[in-house]
Amino acid sequence: MRSDAKPTSKARTTLVVAVTGAVGAGKSSLASHLAQTNGGRVGGWVAEAGARDVEGRGAANYTWHHLHDGQRRVFAVRAEQGYTFDLSQVDEARAWLETLEPGKPLDLLVTDEFGRAEAAGGGWAPCIPAILRAEPHVWLICLKEGMLGELETAIGRRVDAVIHADDPEAEERFRRLVAERGDWETVGVWGATGGGIEMSLGSALHAGLVPMRGLVLSTMQAVLLTRATERLGRRDRVVWVSFIAAGMKALSPAGNRLRPMMAITIQGLLYRMAVRALGWSRLGAAVGGALVGMWAVSQGILLNLLFLGGDLTRAFDEAMKWLGSRLGVQTPTFWAAVSVWVALWGVAAGSGTAWG
């Protein structure tokens, strides 16, 4: 009977990679190598082939190498009517999968291999529901050639990538896929965190008209971008953290939305520009934070200039002349005052980012 297991919405976070190829192409060898060099929590099984009496034909028997405990036991033996399986190992594998703690998924789960027996609901197919519940970060499935459709039907979802075992760059491609998945998870988590800060603390500060709230929020965003960048394989993806946070700001329950959304987006672009130009270092993060803070204060000034033009600068200069005459001091021009004010915000935000 075919497995009708459907993944939950959480199970969609698992990266499913199929390794395919002809008989003897090296699917199991590749899977075993990837498991040995993964470096994280690994489980599942690799089917180690016995003797092949005819080239291009399945082996006389297959031994399951249980990656989670190191045991090796014969699983399948070829007979005249086809392969017979040691189903007690399937029961043990399913029981082991059920013991995995929720919230502590495996970094890599290997299942070898999916063939006609599994497509019909036999072989190790009864383990599929338990695998979907276990939600490993990466599920690597060795797949008999030409059975991708049957595999996707059995697991109830599309495979994210297919790697051919005889591809010289198969291992490198798998590493890139895993790194990509990790990066986008990081972007999602930190983007949601940034959006949450803007929706909660940001809304409260804006609603309360708290002084210097822009400096506080921009510095916090720069610190958040720094923490996210530390965890990214490709650090220029940090800009997506800001894009997500800006999108979530649209759901803010209080305060202006459009201006903060624009500010957060441009702050992310400026931060990425600094990190790309200066490299990932304390200096790069500090300069990125400074640019974030400088934009936070500049955006309002630029918008006012856009709408009021030279009238704003003339009004400011006249006010400063009046104040200077009353106090008997030299007062700054509009542009001098703005330059100093923007620079101070940059220093404050940059320092907060470097040491936050």
Identify the strand order in the major beta sheet: 5-4-3-2-6-7-1-8
Measured as a percent range, the helix fraction is 55-70%
Uncertain residue ranges: 1-12
Q: What is the residue-averaged pLDDT?
A: 84
Radius of gyration (CA) equals: 29 Å
Q: Please, how many helices?
A: 12
**Number of DSSP strand runs:** 8
Beta-sheet strand percentage?
5-15%
User: Can you summarize the main beta sheet?
Assistant: 8 strands, mixed
The topology string of helices and strands comes to EHEEEEHEHHEHEHHHHHHH
What structural category do the secondary elements indicate?
A: alpha/beta
Could you tell me how far the N terminus lies from the C terminus, measured between alpha carbons in angstroms?
A: 57 Å
Shape: elongated
